[in-house]
Every structure is written in structure tokens, then in C-alpha cells.
Amino acid sequence: MTPFFSNSFRYAAVLLALGVSIAAFSSPASAQRRDFVTEEEIEIIRDAQDIDTRIEVLSRMIDRRFAVLNIEVNGWKDARKPSDVWGELPKGTRIQLLSDIKKLLQKAVDDIDNLASNPNAAPIREKGDKRAKKDPERFGNAVRNLGSAAGRYLAPLKAELDKASNELEKGPILDSIDLCDQIIEAVGKLPAEVKKAKN
Fold first, then answer.
1. Mean predicted lDDT score pLDDT of the chain
2. d(Cα 43, Cα 57) in Å, to the nearest integer?
3. Distance CA 142, CA 52 (A)
4. pLDDT reported for residue 8
5. Nearest to residue 134, comparing CAs of 47, 46, 45, 49?
6. CB count in 10 Å sphere of residue 65
7. Could you point out which of 20, 73, 177, 193 has its C-alpha 20 to 30 Å from the C-alpha of 156?
8. Across the chain, which distance is largest between two alpha carbons, in Å?
9. Which DSSP category does 83 fall into?
10. What DSSP element (H or E) covers 85?
11. Angle, CA of 147, 71 and 63, to the nearest 5°
């Protein structure tokens, strides 16, 4: 009885390996991994080292995907325009673009969380660098700006959830709604913004 089980197991393992090999080589286009940001956007993210700038560019990337989906979020006015800096508009299926939105929201949250847990990760300024004046405000501004974007996204996402035709669409929409709720809740825990007195 043991040899039969061993042979059957080996036979199943060979079939499984063969099936995986056939699947991998039969459809090279589907095997290619699709990134949730374009090549131009990768460079923009890389250049946006300050957290407030990083959140602004991530929000614009989200606005671009909503624009491609023809979903109005009252965001970046140039979201529908290709440019030399931003490149062509992102491409993908409806589900892919909805998934991109979720991943970009998650990246924004992760970037803020990473800086909150490791404040020394912020860029170090040279003495006399004018940007250093804004450094103490950058984190709070980033969280508030992300909260503002999340507030803009929430109602359109809920409307899309009501229209979603299948579970594959509902998944990233529900995840994005949950992220927006978490972001808005986090903004509510920030200390009140101190208004600077005008001279």
C-alpha cells in the first residue's frame, strides 16, 4: 500500500509541475506583472522625498485613475491631461484601475505610518536650506491633505460600490472605502492646526 501512495503522490506532483509549466508558458502576456504606477509616476514618487509632497503626488495619481474611470472626485484639475512629467494617462481595466486606487491609498497610509514610527527617516537638510522652515509642519500637513483627499473619494467610492456588477469590483472598492474611513478617523486625532498670525 505504501508504494502505491508514493507512486500516486509522485505522479500527482509531476502532473502539477507540468500543469504549472504549461500555464506559465502558454500565456506570456498574462504572466507579465502589471504595476499599479506608471514608469513616470515611479520617478515622481522617487523625487517626492518630503512627506507632504509625497502625499500630494500620490493623491494626484489616485485622481488620475478616477479621471480615467470617468468618476468625478473634485480633485486635481489636470488629472485628465497627459504631460511630459506625468506621462500618458494610466491604462487598465476597470478592476485594475480600482485596484490601483486601493494600492495608492495604502501606499500613502504606509508612507505616513513609516515616518510616524521612524521620524529620522525624513530628509536631512543642509544648514541654511530654506525648505527646513516647513519641516515641522510637513507631517501634520501630509495627514490633513490625505484626509481631505479621502473625504473627496468616499462618496464617489460608495456610489461605485452600489453600481458594482461583481465581487471582483466590490473588493478593491470596499478596501478603499475602509482606508478612507481610517484616514479620516486618524485626521480627527491630530492636534488642532495652529494658525500662524499675520505680521
1. 82
2. 11
3. 4
4. 39
5. 49
6. 22
7. 193
8. 91
9. B
10. none
11. 45
* The pLDDT of residue 26: 37
d(CA 40, CA 11): 48
Place of cell 509616476: 41
Please tell me whether the overall predicted TM-score, pTM, comes out greater than 0.85 for this model: no
- Higher confidence at residue 12 or residue 119? 119
Query: Which pairs from 68-72 meet CB under 8 Å and 24+ separation?
Result: 68/92, 68/97, 69/94, 69/97, 69/98, 71/156, 71/160, 72/156
Instruction: State residue 195's pLDDT score.
Output: 62
- Residue 27, pLDDT score: 38
Q: Which pLDDT score is estimated for 43?
A: 94
As a whole number of angstroms, the distance between CA 119 and CA 70 comes to: 38
Length of the chain: 199
Structure-block grid coordinates of residue 67? 479621471
Query: DSSP letters along 140-170, please?
Result: HHHHHHHHHHHHHHHHHHHHHHHH--SHHHH
> Residue 71: which pLDDT band, with cuts at 50, 70 and 90?
very high
C-alpha cell at 96: 485594475
Q: What is the pLDDT of residues 47-57, one digit of tens each?
A: 999 999 999 99
Amino acid at 158: K
